[in-house]
Design a protein that fits this description.
It contains 45 helices and eight strands. By secondary structure, it is mainly alpha-helical. The strands form two sheets. A five-stranded parallel sheet has the order 2-3-4-1-5, sandwiched between helices. The protein is flat. The two termini are 35 Å apart.
Length: 949
Amino acid sequence: MARAIDRLVRTSSPVLVGRETELRLLTGTVGRGASVALIEGEAGIGKSRLVRELLQQPETAGLHRLIGYCQPLREPFPYGAVIEALRNFPENAESAFSPLTAVLRPLLPELADRFPAALRPAGDPATERHQVFRAVRELLASAGPALLVIEDLHWADDGSRQLLRFLMTDPPDNLSVVVTYRREDLTTGPPLGTAYRPPVGLPSAVVALEPLDVAGVRALTAAILGAETIGTDLATLLYQRTAGIPFVVEEAVRTLPQPIDSRTTQRLLDHVEVPALLRDAMSERLSSLAPEARAVSCATAVLGVPVTTELLGGITELPPDLVERALTEALSAGVLREAGDGRYAYRNALGRQAVYDSLPGPRRQGLHRRIADLLVAADPQPQLQLAEHSRLAGRTEDWRRYAESAADRGTEIGDTATATRLLQRLLAEPDLPSAAVDRLAAKLGLAAYTGLDQTDPMDTLRRLLTDHRLSPAVRGEVRLYAGLLLIRADGGVAAGRAEIERAIPDLGARPDLVAKGVAVLAQPWLGTASLEQTRRWSLRAEEGLRTSTDPVLTTSLQANLLASRLHTGDGRVWEAFAVLNRPPEEPAEQRQLARLHCNLADACAAIGELATAGKLLRSGMQFATDSGAPFVVSTARSTQARVDWITGQWAGLDERAGQLLDEYRDLFPVTSEVSLALAGLAVARGEWGEAAEHLAATGVPNPADAIAPVALGGFALQTWMELTRGRLPGALESAERGLELLRRKQVWAWAGEIVPAALAALLAAGRRDDAQRVLDELDLEVDGLDAPLSRIAVRCGRAQMAEADGELAAAIALYRATQREYAELLAPYFAALVAERAARCELVADEPAGLAELAVVANSFDQLGATYDAARCRHELRSRGATAPSRRGRKGYGTELSPREQEVARLLGSGHTNREIAEVLFLSPRTVEQHVAKVLRKLGVSSRAELAR
């Protein structure tokens, strides 16, 4: 059972989630005189919550609320729920009670003194019942504007249903009636009988509540936790466990650790208690079934996956006709559902768990044995299911054999999550022999290295290093994989390199693993190790390459070595790539070919070969997807995000990047690169808070544990941001730290972004000589390198120096040449930035083309989505009395947001104040106020907080 959390947290959402359409339908129906509404849905779906929200709406504020509840274990009492509601009859009725209401005296003693004198009984039960019905209607008619709510109609007595049908067929002019019920728990057909029809000509609604989708579960969970959002993977996991039933989501969220710890969330949700509401509902439904239907339902619960009628027959030993009849009954009762392809299952995991837990232990174990015996005969054998049923049947040796086989299959086809999960469970068994620990530990390291699940396997591998059962021969292998996983963790690069170095001496009997470890240590992009240090490891890796006869190992080593060479500006790698780039013969070779393509793509992105990067990413992603290499897919997607930023593919980039951060939050090489792209977007939009947050995730705070080219890009952006904000000391600090990392790494092919930013900061501080030394150093070091961005940075630096020296004509010419080179490189944002510098030089030189050029640059920024940069250019134009050509097109936008209003709306949604928006968009506070008012009005929201939600 899940452990209760240590402190109190909110257990329900403070706002209604996923039911906005249904609430609008109800508020448009009730409160308008005579009207009826029926709300149906399964247990926990949110019927009562919807009613509570309805009662809080302005449309129902002036109504007398009469609320009654039907009970599952009710004492015999006629018209119970309706009479309960009438006990809250208003003290001051709008009209006197009619004589007919006297028949209600025995039913409502609380109101006896307000009823007329009792009438003589009619003596005929049918007549007396009709008198009661009419009396209730007349009583309600005297209440003034009223809302009658009857909850859980599926538990109502027949008298209450008949009374409600009478009222809802012809309600008084002042009365709205709302009833809720579970359709699957109705035992006598429709809730008000087959003859009931909503009144013609009166407002009416039937609201069928469906489970929330993944987006709804995500929004509900975030609202419960008081968070802005939650990860997609957590939302998906919750959806799978709860089937989107809001009450079950709330109960599951109650078990989560606070703050949410992704490492334990899955474990907690796998063992979350079944909510009492759901457990009781399943028990009630199960008890109403015939023995055969119960047997089928129990067998399905124990099997745990969608099941065919044939397999159900084998488990229950019922003939086919009885199985079909039993299934039909279980479906009608809402116990099971059709899962497609002739299979049947429970609606959600917790419903299945409720039935499973209700079975006595010996019966459960017997069913697991029966299922395992039947699955053995299947072709192909479902190894994972056989493992689980064998374990729960108490067959330990069978469980271990099938689990290892299933893990092997998972690794083979790329389902590494399943493989690592099974291997960890096997390694957790205390009585495993040493040989099995060795074998399984090695398999776990390989599976984890290939996949995405890093933290738990890394913890297991570290624990194994102190396990006496692990032999010395395998200890080095385990340490190697622990180091490889550490490198992928936030703050783990230096520690990971140290573990790999420590492992290599223990891998003497495994030259293939020695080569793998050495090739990783040869990667120049890891941490602050210098090029001289990594080249020593490169030479050793090349020795292993020369002796390798295994094509998979060869491609694996080259995926590291060729990418390392290209990162340093060695363009000769393409000859070797052409030799390796052949159709793979097996999945393992294809996975390494995917690494080769994607690693080279990453190097191309770092040095500025952007067109080639795009081509390699497309081919590498295809290889990785086809062969089951999820980690390679993750790195390719992060590289694509960075390429998209540099090449100006900004439409939807922030959403795509946000999804990557959710999906791969435990993989630092991925999250740091994605954060760099997001920081770039934020700087271009003037969103300084968001930019700083993203830059902190690029490795800038601690380069020793960073991916070096990503950290250099982070330092460059940080320098530009500080300069733009007029914070010269901060800009100089970022520039100097970036230059320090560049010089320590000695990889000048990565200088393309940091050097122009550093030069700008140094020149702004009046340190021309220091700027010249940096430029001369760059010019010397990039000579002969295949490093397009760094070569362009040399020309850009010369333009910057000329501008600083007042040589405006030379600066303009150099900036224009740099602009063309960036454009040819497919880097439009960089091109626009230097085009702006050229235009400003023209303005200083009083060249007539300057204003027009600056207006063109403003439009270029607009097209990219660089709103701050565009606003800066237009502000300069306005200050010089010029009017920039509007990119807004038509003047009237009606109820649609104009482009400027869209910018304001985005900043509002991010929580910016009016003053901050004015700063970002170079507008006056008064103008911002006007834009904010228009945005709120057009979007139909009443406050900034509502827009932010």
